[in-house]
């Protein structure tokens, strides 16, 4: 595990180089306790900071967000598994689901990305910090496609966040009662992976995490050297003080078009 801030003096980082970027960008929204306020206010801040950081962006479509709090009562905890949020198939499905049908095919012909905008809430993310893998140290064979399964429901609620249910031990190998809602990458261990983290990252800072890029080198005919994704995970830092506040964070998931 490497300290990102100190490494930045000898290694270049960026969403198109390493797959991630960290920089200072204070938000007007600070509490993130009201989903409506997040959608009606903070989403606009996220779109603005993306376009400021990456001026070539022409269109941003934010499709959801997740707030994680290290509290027993919180349904969404930090995820301790190295993963990438979307596979190429899942990324295309997001474009088809969240854009105007009259624009979809044209948008799919151009360059599009999925970028997560991650920020600590309330205090520095000392407890269970977020680590990212430098894309340049990954290999395509490290990526393992995994279906996202959610239990069937008849409550007309299509928001699955925080509603995951583990199957009964007797049906662990069965998908009965579940439906596929997406596809992610799990990441196989590789001694060549270089992990970085921004120690004590503050709420005034954001991290951009690229999950997909339609023009990256991982695709046939893609641009050589263009980062395709950023494996990431929460982890236990043994240097975390015993009295550190539980991590709170928000990640906003964005379709980005050029």
What is the CATH architecture assignment? Sandwich
Kindly estimate the percentage of residues that lie in beta strands according to DSSP: 25-35%
State the CATH class. Mainly Beta
What portion of residues is helical? 10-25%
Provide the number of structural domains.
1
Strand order of the largest sheet: 2-10-5-12-3
Characterization of the model:
This protein has 258 residues and is of the alpha+beta class. It has a single domain, classed as Jelly Rolls (Sandwich). The chain is 17% helix and 30% strand. The chain is built from four helices and twelve strands, in the order βαβαββααββββββββ. The strands form three sheets. Strands 2-10-5-12-3 form a five-stranded antiparallel sheet, with helices on both faces. A four-stranded mixed sheet has the order 1-9-6-11. Strands 4-8-7 form a three-stranded antiparallel sheet, with no helix packed on it. It is globular and about 50 Å long. The model has no long low-confidence stretch (mean pLDDT 90).
Gist of the model:
The protein is an alpha+beta fold. The protein has helices at 4-7, 35-53, 88-98, 101-109, and strands at 2-3, 20-24, 59-69, 83-84, 112-120, 130-133, 143-151, 178-187, 195-197, 205-213, 232-234, 248-257. The chain has a single domain (2-140, 194-257), classed as Jelly Rolls (Sandwich), CATH 2.60.120.
């Amino acid at each position: 595990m490497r300290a990102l801030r100190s490494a930045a003096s000898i290694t270049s980082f960026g969403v198109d180089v390493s797959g991630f970027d960290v920089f200072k960008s204070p938000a007007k929204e600070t509490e993130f306790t009201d989903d409506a306020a997040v959608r009606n206010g903070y989403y606009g801040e996220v779109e603005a900071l993306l376009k400021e950081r990456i001026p070539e962006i022409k269109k941003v479509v934010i499709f959801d967000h997740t707030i994680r709090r290290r509290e027993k009562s919180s349904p969404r905890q930090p995820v301790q598994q190295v993963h990438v949020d979307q596979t190429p198939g899942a990324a295309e499905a997001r474009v088809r689901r969240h854009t105007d049908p009259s624009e979809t095919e044209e948008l799919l012909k151009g360059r599009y990305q999925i970028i997560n905008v991650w920020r600590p809430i309330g205090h520095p993310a000392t407890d269970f910090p977020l680590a990212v893998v430098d894309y340049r140290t990954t290999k395509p064979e490290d990526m393992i496609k995994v279906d996202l399964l959610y239990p069937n429901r008849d409550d007309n609620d299509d928001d699955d966040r925080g509603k995951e249910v583990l199957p009964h031990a007797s049906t662990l190998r069965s998908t009965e009662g579940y439906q596929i809602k997406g596809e992610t990458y799990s990441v196989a261990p590789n001694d060549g992976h270089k992990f970085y983290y921004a120690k004590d990252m503050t709420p005034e800072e954001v991290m951009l995490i690229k999950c997909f890029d339609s023009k990256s080198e991982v695709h046939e005919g893609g641009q050589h050297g263009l980062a395709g994704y950023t494996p990431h995970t929460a982890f236990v830092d043994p240097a975390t003080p015993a009295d550190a506040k539980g991590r709170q964070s928000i990640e906003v998931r964005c379709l980005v078009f050029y």
